[in-house]
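Hey team,

Filing this mostly as a record. A colleague (T.K.) asked me to run one chain through the structure pipeline before their review meeting, and I want the input and output archived in the tracker in case anyone asks later how it was produced. No errors, nothing strange. Just documentation.

Input sequence:
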Amino acid sequence: MKNKKKNNLILKIIGSSSILTIASIMVILICILMIFDFFGAELTKEKISNNAEYADLFKQASNKYIKNGYVPLQRLLYFYLEDQSLTFDTLYQLNQNPTGKIEKEISVVCEDERVKNMGACTASNIESNKEYLSVPTPLFNFPLKTSSYTITSFYNEQRIIYGEQNVHSGWDLATSAQTPLYSVCNGTVHKVTYTQNENIPYDQSGNKTGNIIVLKCDQDYAETYYVTYAHLYPNSAKVKVGDSVSHWTEIASVGTTGHSTGNHLHYQVADANWNLIDGMQLIDFNSVSDYSNQLEYKPTQEALPLPY
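Output structure:
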């Protein structure tokens, strides 16, 4: 049997010092470790290793419910790995504050009857794993104004593109060619690279670079962020290097240039040191006044290609 890496997010169960209690705890801990080892998931603050098994479930739930606030995969797995009778749909809604359109604090989630008796909801486990469960402060608006898009890949997703294994560096939002794209922040244009004049995918162009714009978000924020928009439509840039941008500045439009299989926005965020982070956690889903009225989950009539 192959050795599988054990989950970094092991629920830490603390009990009394009696032999019987210790024995009971060991049985429970072994069972939990067996569950984690079987599924092979490793959780860190923003990343899930060996996540291909959960990718489709997570994307399906995200496409249905993200309009009411983003819930990261690690929060869902925090509960799901302990009790798989709770579906991703159930857990996604359970972890949302639909009024504020944000992820709930873990202490609030654990008041729910469906999870409050879980090991995941003990005070010691919440404290031990607080860095995985914290709710970030939303800073950015959404990069699209249209509600007609489908999430086809998420940050750190393990997948196969053009026959090659790949760990995705951002989020893919599939939508129509030439859909306008907007600055998510206040900052400056850091980079504009347009290398492709035809809006065709990689299997036709052979061009991995494509058309890219990078924003430096460094105004009104405690930290600096670099936001990359990739696969842009040819000749669609409405900004140049050095230009100032603010929330909702139109910068370009959606295409399928570079290492892409279909029209979509590749939305990617890095910190000041260019370490990739989950950019969806920075989105304020209240940032568009009519967003809640427009965004609905509508399965596409035709299967979308899996963009990169």
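Quick notes for T.K.: Residues 19-133 form one domain. The CA atoms of residues 181 and 253 lie 5 Å apart.
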